[in-house]
Amino acid sequence: MGSGRSGAPRVLLLLIKQGANGLNLTEAQHVVLAEPLLDPAVEAQAVGRVDRIGQRRSTHVHRFVVERTIEENVHRLCQQRAAAMDLSAASIKRGAGGQEKGGLTVRDVALLLRRPDNEEEVMEAEGDGDAELAGQAGQQQQQQRLDPRQAVAAAALRRSGAA
């Protein structure tokens, strides 16, 4: 948080899931996001705790993402979801939008588990490779939404060769 009345800097550390709800922190100026989340709305809500009506100073958001780790993939997926949410919100305002179901797709899990240093694979997976990711033996499966526990289990089975 900004400088206190005594002039010494004050800091308030909160976990994003606990600190993102029900707080107005208009005395703060900086928000530090130390780990990426899959839900861009939670991050936006955490930033919104500081960037409120009554805030007299500009809000600075600092985001840390560890290179060449799964955090890069999580951050990339979060950005894609945020963009999709923006498009969905725009279409709802026009009256043409539906509502997307929550959860991870098989493609989302595959993108999360790819190595960040192999950018070509990531780009291929973002293109037309969905069918290959969903079913390896030439079987075309429809993309399905999984809750996070199912997604992790499916990824573990795929990696072990059991799927």
UniProtKB/TrEMBL annotation:
It comes from the Eukaryota. Keywords: Hydrolase, Signal. Residues 7-54 form the Helicase C-terminal domain. Residues 1-22 form the signal peptide. GO terms for molecular function: hydrolase activity; ligase activity. Residues 118-131 have a biased composition (Acidic residues). The keyword tRNA processing does not apply. PANTHER family: E3 UBIQUITIN-PROTEIN LIGASE SHPRH (PTHR45865:SF1), E3 UBIQUITIN-PROTEIN LIGASE SHPRH FAMILY MEMBER (PTHR45865). This is E3 ubiquitin-ligase SHPRH.
